[in-house]
Amino acid sequence: MLYPKPLFFLILENTVLYNFDEIIDRRHTGSLKWHYSDDTIALWVADMDFRAAQPILNTIERVGHHGVLGYTKPTAALYQAIINWHGSRYGLALDKQHILFSHGVIPSLALMLRVFTEAGEAILVNDPIYTPFMTKVRDNGRRLILSPLTEAEGRYHLDLVDIEAKIVEHEVKLYLLCNPHNPGGRVWTADELEALLVICKKHDVAIVSDEIHQDLTLSGHEFIPFLQLAKGYEHKVVSITSMTKTFNVAGIKGAMIFAKDEALIKQINQQQRLRDEHDLNLFAYEVMASAYEKGGEWLEQVLAYIEANIDLVCDFLEKHLPNITVMRPDASYLIWLDCSAYGQDDQTLYNQFRDAKVELSGGIQYGNEGHLKMRLNVACPQVILIEGLNRIHTALSDMSQPL
Length: 403
Hints:
Layout: E1 11-13, E2 16-18, E3 41-42, H1 54-66, H2 76-90, E4 99-102, H3 105-116, E5 122-127, H4 132-139, E6 143-148, E7 150-152, E8 155-157, H5 160-170, E9 172-178, H6 190-202, E10 206-210, E11 237-241, E12 255-258, H7 262-274, H8 282-294, H9 296-320, E13 325-327, E14 334-338, H10 346-355, E15 358-359, E16 361-362, E17 373-377, H11 382-397
Parallel strand pairs: 3-15, 5-6, 5-9, 9-10, 10-11
Antiparallel strand pairs: 1-2, 4-12, 7-8, 11-12, 13-14, 14-17, 16-17
Helix pairs in contact: 1-8, 2-8, 3-4, 3-7, 5-6, 9-11, 10-11
Organism: Psychrobacter glacincola
EC number: 4.4.1.13
Domain Aminotransferase class I/classII large: 66-372
């Protein structure tokens, strides 16, 4: 054991106590993340192993105790909670009519393909990128165009020259932006976003910004909603976000689509109604309102815990596996690891981790730029993370010496 078990970790703020060291057994519950029949450590799919905020759990209990689980609709209080959250935290001015609801961010991305493009038209995404950005484009009969991110000083950067060249060459109609970026964890700066906006306006390219990790922005970084920069181009810009990643309620499906142009809002709404994609279930509406009204304290505390876990990972790898290059995230609990020093192919690398009974996400699923990379989820009790790190050490120590 390279690291001892951590001390009991508690945070006390305003008399509310959250214990993120609590180990909650998720095996044999239908959990996607913890589906194993053995003692494999799950550090892959992007949900947290922490109990949800107590106000959210109280809300679910209250709704259940009411006893009538009928048809429902968003309330005025829900709209106001969304407006207040995004206005106070990010300066994004929203009105009720700017907010549409969706079953999830990925269904929303698929919807935007129908809003902004026709079959056969080109859509640009970066590489690496969250896998559904690529699969949904292909599955919906659009042409997928990739622009690789560049890496400098341990961070990803947009290659604006390549982006514009690809837009011109392929007559791109839509750019799918991931901000904060998954899997690299970058929070794009105002300068980067404004430069991208200039290019897209010049060539009449629509922009859909997936901002689901916005609330997981870490200290020292600032998240800027794309809509906040899009004045005069609102008819071509949509933002998509959700409470699910922020508050660890991914099993309760629900997302929001933000748009500010009246004609565009009407078009989105029409596309949703064609497929009955505009209504959420009772629990999604209630949890969303509760999270945005009362979840801020839990979020502040969990982010502090996540940052401590990120520090732990960086320290461990620097000391024990220095040939792994760590891309420290600006946002989220996902860390992008470059394992190329170990000189194996992608499947061999993944299998080596699995043989050591620790599962990370194989980087190659996020595009060619993910070759020999792995995505590590640190949103778990520290004792689990430490055991996972020790198994990673075992996995790579068993391989041939680094190149």
